[in-house]
Amino acid sequence: MSSLERPSTAGTSTVPARFENPGLEEHKPRLSDIDQRAAKRVERQVALLFAISVLASLAAVVAYFAIPSEDTLGTVRASTLALGLGLGIGMLGIGVAAIHWSKSIMNNMERVEQRHPQRSDAQTRAVAGQMMVDGVDDSGIARRPLLKGALVGAAALAPLPILVPLVGGLGGDWNVSKLKHTVWGDHPEGFVGTLPDGSVGRRLARDPEDTPIRATDVTIGSVFHVIPHGLSEDEEYYEEKAKAVVLLVRLDPRVLKERPERADWSYDGIVAYSKICTHVGCPVALYEQQTHHLLCPCHQSTFDITDEAKVVFGPAGRPLPQLPIAVDDEGYLVARSDFTEPVGPTFWERLR
Predict the structure, then answer these.
(1) 152-158 long-range contacts, Cβ below 8 Å, gap at least 24?
(2) Structure confidence by residue, pLDDT tens digits, 3-44
(3) Domain assignment present for 19
(4) Has residue 299 been placed in a domain?
(5) Which residues lie in Polar residues bias regions (predicted)?
(6) Does residue 1 lie in a domain region?
(7) 192 bridge partner residues
(8) pTM greater than 0.70 (yes/no)
């Protein structure tokens, strides 16, 4: 019996133990391979896609300056939406053009490479380098100045929608000082409480009811989603709320690990931490009562609220900022001050 055959379990016939490599199918040339007019047509299509990318990038920059910052579509600033759309269409144009270029103009001959050890020898690496050079030659970029110019123009302008808001003094509202302040430090009349030392603090309120919270309402293990009491329903309501949202939890005071300088930031086991993840700003609102951990649902960063919300798992680089709290003369929880550090992810004007 041949080594390529083995007995069949269904009868006396034999079936192959393995199959010979059938090889590649016969190569079928594309229309652009055999018709010069078709090749030129594809070249113009690719150039058009690059041109669309250029126009989208320029339109995004123009819209960013031309649309007033107070114009909104729903809750989204119109200039920000235009910037994002321009950036997306610009990048999409480059990507689609590159794919169309490679599939319709570059060589599409099938090649087979046998598996080999992970580290190649010097000769193989030299061949690989030559293949890259051949690929550049195969793209025809040296012989196609139209595509070369379109590619360079699209690639050069595509980053503009990202760079323009980062350049100060060009008319954009990019004031990072706003990231260092929340309305917890404001004391509007009627929404504050007086502390025993005579100072005042903004009361903590349930989100979204805006009802102030008494310390006696918070039992051990309970969780409250908190906003500043009396948060104004003005045009910046959502911006201010997004920075100021807090998660309030009551623990057994014996499990808290507090530095001496933070001993008065909590009240009888009640602690308050920013809900904004220090990784990329997702809402941290999943509380594990048994482990006393707060979890971010986006990238699984985990914070230990018994130990000043330090990071115990995940990509977040620093603890959640703590809101110092106390109880006023009427028994309501109030913020002793604003957060002592900016909330949310790290940005370029802070060291960590």
Answers:
(1) 153/50, 153/54, 154/50, 154/51, 154/53, 154/54, 154/57, 154/90, 154/93, 154/94, 154/97, 155/94, 157/53, 157/54, 157/57, 157/58, 157/90, 158/53, 158/57, 158/87, 158/90, 158/91, 158/94
(2) 444 555 555 556 667 777 777 888 888 888 888 899 899 999
(3) no
(4) yes
(5) 1-15
(6) no
(7) 202
(8) no
Q: How sure is the predictor about 138, in pLDDT bands with cuts at 50, 70 and 90?
A: confident
Q: Please state the separation of Cα 68 from the chain's center in Å.
A: 26
Instruction: Output the six-digit token pair for 174.
Output: 């990019």
Q: Identify whether residues 82 and 139 lie together within a single domain.
A: yes
Please choose, from the candidates 229, 240, 223, 206, the residue with its C-alpha nearest in 3D space to the C-alpha of residue 343. Answer: 240
How many domains would you assign to the chain?
A: 2
Which residue carries 């729903």 as its tokens? 74
Tell me the residue range of the domain where 81 lies. 27-174
**Which pair of tokens denotes residue 132?**
């890259």
Angle, to 10 degrees, between the axis of helix 36-66 and the axis of helix 145-157?
Answer: 20
Same domain, 298 and 222: yes
**Each residue of 180-223: pLDDT tens digit?**
789 999 998 889 999 988 999 999 999 989 999 999 999 999 99
**Domain check: are 61 and 126 in the same one?**
yes
User: In the structure, what pLDDT confidence band is assigned to residue 302 with cuts at 50, 70 and 90?
Assistant: very high
Q: CA-to-CA distance for 281 and 100, rounded, in angstroms?
A: 37
